[in-house]
Amino acid sequence: MGLAALLDECWTVEQRKACIRQLATNAATGDMEAVKLLMSYTFGKPRESVDLTSDGEVVLKVIYGNDGADN
Predict the structure, then answer these.
(1) Is 45 part of a structural domain of the chain?
(2) Entry pTM
(3) Most buried of 3, 13, 42, 47, CB within 10 angstroms?
C-alpha cells in the first residue's frame, strides 16, 4: 500500500478540512510558518534569480524555479 492510499484510508476528508481550517486560522492570527506554508501551496514559491556581474554591470541574470509561471 502506498502512502497516498494509506492516507486516504486513515485520514478522512473531514479531518483534512479541519486541518486546513486550523492552518488558515493560525495564519490569520499571525503565525508566519502557517502563512508561509499556505502561500507556498496556494501560489507556489517565488522564482529565484541571481545576477552575475562584471565591473559592476549585470552580465547575466539567471532565473530559476519549477513552477514555470512569470512572477
Answers:
(1) yes
(2) 0.58
(3) 47
